[in-house]
């Protein structure tokens, strides 16, 4: 499936949410299973195509000739130890809090949980800064399009994948802390 062709959008590294959304809503509305003459299979294809094009990593992967995942982006290599450590700390503290049965045990965890929240927020901020730099790089590649370096496209796709996955994991831990 070619999501660009399915949604009749240009094969470019940078597509706005507005252009993806407008085209998707128009085509999906025509094929929605609840509509007379709707086509459930086409509706699913359109939904998947829109999901691919909305995700910079997946969109870039569709434009890349290399399968990806072969090189660890330098920024990801630098962030990995910090991300891994904070996720492990979060899991350990959240589990300890869940199994703390008395007020004293819970009180002892208050300061480490507060420090964890600060570390999570700080790391999320660092990831957002990285994401901003990725967005700038994506804009630069799009301005030069169709001239491009396939390896740069693949590396950028991998970078978006790492940043997105880690941001999701950190936000999940923040939500767990909010529920404590």
Topology (elements, then pairings):
Elements: H1 3-6, H2 17-31, H3 40-54, H4 56-63, H5 74-99, H6 103-108, H7 110-144, H8 150-178
Question: What is the number of independent domains?
Answer: 2
How much of the sequence lies in strands comes to: under 5%
What overall geometry do the principal axes of the alpha carbons give?
flat
Rg of Cα set: 21 Å
Q: State the end-to-end distance.
A: 44 Å
Instruction: Tally the helices.
Output: 8
Query: What percent of the residues sit in helical stretches (DSSP H or I)?
Result: over 70%
Instruction: Characterize the largest beta sheet: strand count, sense, and whether it forms a barrel.
Output: none
Class of secondary structure makeup: mainly alpha
What are the secondary-structure elements, in order, as H or E? HHHHHHHH
Could you tell me the mean pLDDT?
93
Low-confidence stretches: none
Number of strands: 0
How would you describe what is shown here?
The chain folds into 2 domains: 3-54, DnaJ domain (Helix Hairpins, Orthogonal Bundle), CATH 1.10.287.110; 74-178, no CATH class. Helix content is 77%, strand content 0%. The protein is built from 8 helices and no strands. The longest helix is centred in the last third of the chain and has 35 residues, at 110-144. The relative contact order is 0.14. The model has no long low-confidence stretch (mean pLDDT 93).
């Amino acid at each position: 499936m070619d999501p660009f062709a399915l949604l009749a959008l240009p094969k470019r590294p940078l597509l706005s949410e507005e252009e993806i959304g407008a085209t998707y809503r128009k085509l999906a509305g025509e094929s929605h299973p609840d509509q007379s003459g709707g086509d459930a299979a086409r509706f699913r294809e359109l939904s998947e195509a829109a999901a691919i094009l909305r995700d910079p990593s997946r969109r870039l992967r569709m434009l890349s000739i290399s399968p990806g995942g072969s090189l660890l982006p330098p920024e990801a290599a630098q962030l990995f130890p910090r991300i891994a450590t904070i996720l492990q700390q979060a899991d350990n503290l959240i589990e300890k809090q869940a199994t703390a049965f008395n007020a004293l045990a819970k009180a002892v965890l208050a300061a480490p949980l507060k420090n964890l929240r600060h570390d999570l927020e700080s790391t999320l901020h660092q990831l957002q800064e990285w994401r901003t730099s990725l967005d700038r790089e994506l804009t630069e590649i799009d301005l030069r399009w169709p001239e491009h370096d396939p390896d740069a496209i693949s590396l950028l796709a991998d970078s978006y994948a790492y940043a997105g996955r880690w941001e999701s994991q950190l936000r999940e831990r923040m939500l767990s802390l909010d529920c404590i």
